[in-house]
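Exam prep: given the inputs below (a chain plus nicotinamide-adenine-dinucleotide), describe the expected output before reading on.
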Amino acid sequence: MSYAELDMLIDGKWTKGNGTPMDVLNPATEEVLGSLPTATDADLDAAVEASQRGFEAWSDMTALARQKMMEKAARYIEDNIETIARNLTMEMGKPVAESKGELGFVLDVIRWYGEEGKRAYGRVVPSRFPGTRLIATKEPVGPTCAFVAWNFPGVNVVRKIAGALGAGCSIVIKPSEETPATAIAIARAFQEAGVPDGTINVVFGDPAAVSSRVLASDIPRKMSFTGSTAVGKLLAKQAAETLKRCTMELGGHAPVLVFDDADVEAAAKAAAGSKYRNAGQVCISPTRFYVQEKVYGDFVDAFEAAAKAIKVGNGLEDGVQMGPLVADRRLPVMQGFVDDAVARGATLVTGGKRIGNQGYFYEPTLLKDVPEEAEIMNEEPFGPVAPVASFKTEDEIIAKANKVKVGLASYAFTSDGERAGRLSKRLNTGLVGLNSMNVSTPETPFGGVDESGYGSEGGVEGLEAFLRTKLVSETGI
Ligand code: NAD
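Solution:
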């Protein structure tokens, strides 16, 4: 099956650039899918300069005209969804059904930001001076730049592109070199829709070299980053040199608290489904399961049954529910988490090893009685390994839930309404799911607290992140 042609997009032109190409691998087969062009410093400078011109043209259009073009881009993706989904699966590994689901979300994000751009309202403030009008207006922040992770090759990219364009900004984006075709397809949709040259620029290369070159320029006025906390800290420091605004969507390590009064079967089913989605490579994936003593055994049994029922394989094959890890470097990381937990006294319930020796497949894994000091209870696993431990009291478990610094998502299952109210206040994360694993929609704010980053994507907050405020004071009216 053929994979997409890979290009960069600079100043409205598809280009192979002047850097050394890189191979893109299929994580299910280890085959080389294609050759990815990369940018030299001169290519990057051209992209950044084009984003200034793109900004001037795009921001000059009315919000209504911009929305119509964004709608056209969404329709292009809709018309080509089968091909884009298959390319996404080939480069990233997730099952085609999941790729299509992701692209459905991509469409919703484009449409949401396109529409919401029409509502970037300011306000007229009653003036304290006679004959004077005070107007607070919203303007696009300027050209922007973004650097994103591979785990949602469509959603991670479109939250940046559509957020920027909805607000009237241009963008230079460096998607992950591991999953370029999906980003290219999204950019192509906007080009086909007719956005001015330079509005969207897509570049690839050595990640650190690309981001340091782009961030050193004073043209981008904002950076939006999705990735690990460690890299986020590096980039935020570089962005500070030119005082760029930042949206930082970083790591998480989401606890799931299951109380005695919960519907334990439903909780285990929902939690396991969410845990193994995208082979656990999700920033809001539930990653630490704390279950109250009375229902602990039932929860582990139901979770085990759900894990064992998952069909793992090449995402292009019918019926496959979980694909490979994105790259071979992730296999020893998973094994390390499992071996460490077992060495510290945890019991391996199911899974715990690589599947076969071709493709980066790892078994859906469940560990029980995992001690709190095990690495997996303290570091984000970003893979299909689920650790479970029991607890006694609400206070004890809230302290454990809140112990990590990466406060992105947390989840709790309980039928006690008062407890749910307390948990919504006491859990120190940007997203809280109560009897629900669904904390991400295009129209709601998405983002973490503390070392999970700052700023939101999605919802009115996501648009606001690409806007700045100007006060106009006018006399003589
Ligand atoms: P990563 O930080 O390694 O990579 C993210 C981006 O930064 C990619 O474009 C990558 O090429 C680039 N990059 C990597 N190393 C770099 C360096 N030294 N200098 C400059 N750029 C560099 O992250 P990852 O491992 O690809 O993704 C997994 C992480 O992303 C997890 O921690 C996950 O929780 C997080 N994530 C967060 C969100 C969110 O919305 N909060 C969403 C998805 C993923």
